[in-house]
Amino acid sequence: LSDDVWVIGGGVIGSLFAAHLSRVADVTLLCRRPEHAAAVSANGIRVSGRADFVGRPGASTDPAGLTDARLVIVATKANDVEPAAAQLEGRLGDGSVMTVQNGLGAEEVIRSHGTWPQLSAVTFMSGTKLADDHVEYVLDTPTWLAPYDGAPLDLAERTATLIVESGLKAEAMPDLEPARWSKLIFNATVNSVAALTGLPHDYHFAELDRPTDLGHLVRGLMDEGKQIAGAAGISLREDPWEMNVLATQRGSRHYPSMLEDVEAQRPTEVDFITGALVREAERRGVEAPLMTAVYRLVKGREASYE
Amino acid sequence: VRATIVGCGAVGSLFAANLAQLDDVEVWAFDLDREHVEAINAHGLRLSGAGDVVGEVRATTDPAELPPSDFGIVATKCMHTAAAIEATAPAFANGAVCSVQNGVGNEEVLAQHVERVIRGTTFPAGRIVGPGHVQWDVKGDTTIGPFEPSPAAMAEIERLADACTRGGMPTMAVEDARGPQWRKLIFNAATNPIGALTGLTHGRVVEDAGLRRLVSGLVDEGKAVAAVQGIELDADPEELIDHAARPDVAYDHKASMLQDVEARRPTEIDYLNGGVSRFGREQGVPTPLNDAVTALIKGLEASWAQT
Asked: Cβ separation of B198 and A301 shorter than 8 Å?
């Protein structure tokens, strides 16, 4: 497994994986921009914050080397899983693929391009990309992984072990859905509210003193999410509201990616996160007026860009 | 008759300059913008656009200079009502004070400082283009009536309506002025925050099917809160919202709250959606969508303090 690891996508999560794993495996970061690959090849990836070292993964814009990969971590944004999967098709041999996207649906996209053993993962670690070759590691919360579509649990366990050896936190489990849905509900709420208000994930999100305080909306959104999960037969691993209170008490003032996206007028992942819950609610006949409202507002915000 | 305009911004100026056309009305204006006040005193208050008039208005930034008035017309932004009426109330010891502001809840604030209050809703609009000069964008009607818990007499309300109408601001005096106020409130609460949160013009909000349904959800909550109070709307906000989206009406209009948000000015959210929610809570009518957009806009305002 540790012979040849490829990471597709050099955002925060991809950079953190590539830098850490390069200390215990032969890692290549597959980038889209040549200057990104050049910077990483020349300088490595500097990790600051929760850790302090320079990782030395290889970097390339050429997917040809994927042929011999043992493990491919697809760490692109949800919108870019399809082109990543197309790069794997016809190249990746008998290696495995792990997806770590926000929201739902990345596994199906990969599966539609090949029969490789797959792992589903969600990651709670976060950071800020300061440069192509420098990532700030902010929250050292774990990555959870599980087999997808009949892959062996052993594969998830060995992958988790490799990630832990590299210095990141990880845990393998037989069923990802309880963890994935906890994060999905948390993410859909926090990202949408942050994108619309311009607030980082801070104490406002847990305030309940006055009737107009933001915490009421956050809790209302999470309650809708829990009802949708219940209707889908999922028992949550963690309570999203407790996750929210805990994260805001840490005082990290994390900038959710959807906030960064709207500030830079980039397309957001709202269709894969908040939209995934809205579609699931419709499919299961669950009322979700607040989730639907923030989903439409973020879509409206995207439509205002040009 | 002496009338004092409290808050001589765009809407206040429309009342001030038009009323000043009448021989039997003496008009004073209280405003904190020193340049604007000095220009009005030096050259008169000028309107251009939908009507071109110059009104002779006595303006001041000092409330102690205000003489006793028969009428006050309060046209400040909602969040400044309390400070403005607190400062000027002595001038209205024997007068009646009328709000022509946005939203709901302003009359309640006025009634804490003066005895006779008039509930008002006005549709004309304009903008300040320079000191002493206001562009009059849209003509429209004003409806005024007694504020029920602390009412002015119907006779004096009719006198004020008559003066405004003769001056060029068509105004109706009615026994129950809540209908137009809630119609305007519901229209604004259903559209302003959507524009402010998305950055879209009125027309683009209305033609986006998902957002249009959200607008209807906000309208329905407002209608329920109005109905439980026995308020009959004088027009259907849904029709007015669609009408305003026509290219020849206000398709390209950026809601005032969107303009506030772009300039990072405090919004009137507490008196719009916050007002719908507050009256809903008092009446036991749930308003989850109005609660939600109120929290989002207040969150947005809070984000400016951080950067």
From this structure: yes
